[in-house]
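Lab notebook, bench 4. Still working through the backlog of constructs that have no structural model yet. Next entry is a single chain of 268 residues. Request: give me the structure tokens for it.
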Amino acid sequence: MIRVLDGKVRAFLSDRYRRLDNLELCAAVLPVINEMKNSVIESCEVTPTHLYLKVVNRRLKAEVRVGDVVQAGFVVSNSEVGLGSLRVEPLVFRLVCKNGLICKDLAQKKYHVGRQFNASDDSAYELYSEATLEQDDKAFFMKVQDVVRTAVDEAKFLLTVDKLREATQIPLKHEPVKAVELLADKFQLTENERGDILRQLFMGADNSRYGLVNAVTAASKIAKSYERATDLERIGGEILSLPVPQNMLPPPSYDVNLAIPEYETIPA
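Model written out:
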């Protein structure tokens, strides 16, 4: 399959690629997002390779520390040119500095794989009409709608908040400069990104894992592109999901009552 836009070839794809267009995706998910009370599209972008929709639910929120409030949300992303799956990923939005954190562990993906027929059956492709394939896509996007409807889940959000609180109690294993160097090597960060993260870490004056996560997501706001900013938000989520060394985790010092999300009063 060759994908063309404005007379230019965008991608050359194999017979395993399933066409999941951005337009069809938006037609499926935007009405669902519109139905979600207190949910807003915080940002969106169409890049040469991806579509992104970042949605925040302003009602579902909790405190990581006193005064440090985060809100629940999700990211819908897709690539029409074979450079990524259709994803629905949990998003945690920090109100203090408007940073987003994309949670790796609870993401759901739909790969662009399908419509590949048995090579030994030469007539298989001819058995399926365009109308049949359109209905197949319709069923697929109905499943995506169901995934989006459950994307903002209170239990999953609180699990992430618990991890963030735990991260506040985990000191960095190395001093800040070394910690950022190791991070840059692991995630192949550029020199500019390394400098931006280190600067944010010093400005935050928090040498904990939580401080490092926030430094990375804060650096995403000055990234060279929306796409790279989203990559950094995902890297923040990967740092959060790293195993916790038992000898580095002191007893929690935060108020256990903060585990209950704070809700705004919404008129009926």
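Notes after review: The CA atoms of residues 127 and 153 lie 41 Å apart. Residues 117-126, 253-268 have pLDDT under 50 and may be disordered. Flag for follow-up if needed.
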